[in-house]
Amino acid sequence: MSGQRSTGGALGAADGDGLENLARVGLVSYGVIHLVLAWLALQLAWGAGGGGESANESGALATLAESPIGKPLLWVVAIGLIALAVWQALEVLRWRSGWSASGDTRNTAVKRSGKAVAKAIIYAALAVLAFRVATGSSGGGGSQQQTVAGVFGWPGGRWLVGAAGLVVVGVGIYHVYKGVTKHFLKEIDLASAPASATRLVTRLGQVGYPGKGVALGVLGGLLVWAAVTFDPAKASGLDGALRTILEAPFGRFLLTLVALGIAAFGAYLFVRARYPERT
User: Which sequence spans correspond to the domains of the chain?
Assistant: First the structure.
């Protein structure tokens, strides 16, 4: 009984207005990060990013920090991202009863739980990064290479990095799939939304998910290449992924399209904050 009360209390917290409103702030914050990231990518594409911030999450947060209200804004962003992480962590409890089921019920519960855990980790990591930037203690741009170099020193570390790269590639492909098939609409309750809002959400998702998916796919590819060559310098993060797109044939225009897709994904998150998760 105590376990059931604990679960019920946690779910009640997940449904509470306070956490839900903070989660909305988190979605808007996550959207702001994507818009700034898109701006940095456009600067990179058109030759204005040579001496500026890196085109990655750290660079986006550092750019926010340089604005007139940068530090207070970063604290709001960090708190909102923490709320998103907590919200996703509590979502796992929604599906706990399905773990011991069988067939499609169990598969759905495990799949949704895994997605919630992955999102919680991403939001928590971004929240920590936002706190570090706000307090002036953020690390340098080579942190991903350092992390990969450290993993290479583990038993089987090379295979772990390669597997992580393949997972990121898979996530990127899934983002493209969600955008092309409009699968993202199954995750949002638009029953009370006017037709204009539904059209806006649909168009932004159709552009935003593939744009972000391409960037993630290249990022994962760089991780795989780092594992194949046993060279952590190849794992150059999102900034390196965007620079790789820039170096491709017609790279400036391809990177511009990716940047516009990332911007659309950020705008999608703004609208997404207005409507609840479909359960």
Answer: 1-141, 142-279
